[in-house]
Write a structure and sequence with these properties.
TIM Barrel; single chain; globular
């Protein structure tokens, strides 16, 4: 598959294990994942991870809601390492566009991962803001689009078309829901897909013989029925 797989998580042991896997070409984090992992020292965690993983892209997100503070945090985070991408939400919590901030940071050479994008209008605005800047990621939450009953494939294909004139930009298929999404992302030429551990654990199933898989499923049901001691009088 041509799509690059980035691991999505914030648990150090898991990240280091995945770092040893050549299929994993980068990492993404966010404040929600960090909170779930029990992290309280943001910078301490980030610097610890960067010391252990110095040669693959890693995204760390700003956590302010005011754009001036986002900008200050972005500059500080970017200084932590050459492989750091600063995650900037496409809007703040009031729905105000982060486009002007993204443009300023791009002009100063800050590598960004603009996140939480769900519409093509947002893609267009973000691409315009990143144009002419350094390497950057445009993170479209295809899984959340699918959660609303909308097929994300046409959206992702159009996003790639919009981004095509800017080769330094890479499209991320974010929030995948199943292993199939990796194949879909690869098929349309998406650059990156962020994958959670539950989906990463299924990578070995790619190409598995379906007849054999069917038999294994039947055996699983039978073994569980026997172990449960089920019976009908």
């Amino acid at each position: 598959m041509s799509v690059k797989i980035f691991a999505d998580g914030a648990e150090k042991a898991s990240m280091l294990k995945l770092y040893a896997d050549p299929r994993i070409q980068g990492f993404t984090t966010n404040p929600t994942l960090m909170r779930k992992a029990g992290i309280s020292d943001y910078e301490g965690f980030a610097r610890d991870i960067l010391a252990a993983i110095p040669d693959r892209p890693i995204s760390f997100e700003v956590f302010a809601d005011e754009f001036d503070e986002m900008e200050r945090q972005a500059e500080r985070i970017a200084a932590w390492g050459s492989n750091v991408y600063v995650k900037i939400p496409v809007t703040n919590t009031r729905g105000e566009s982060a486009g002007p901030l993204v443009k300023r940071l791009a002009a100063r050479g800050v590598k960004q991962n603009v996140t939480a994008i769900l519409t093509l209008d947002q893609v267009r605005e973000v691409v315009d803001a990143l144009a002419g800047g350094p390497a950057a990621n445009v993170s479209v939450f295809a899984g959340r689009i699918a959660d609303t009953g909308v097929d994300p494939l046409p959206v992702m294909k159009e996003a790639l078309r919009i981004m095509a004139p800017h080769p330094q930009l890479e499209l991320i298929w974010a929030s995948p829901r199943e292993l199939l999404n990796i194949a879909q992302a690869s098929e349309i030429g998406c650059h990156i897909i962020t994958v959670t551990p539950d989906i990463l654990n299924k990578l070995a199933l790619i190409g598995k013989d379906l007849a054999r898989y069917s038999l294994e499923t039947v055996k699983m049901f039978r073994n569980d029925a026997v172990a449960s001691g089920f019976g009908l009088a």
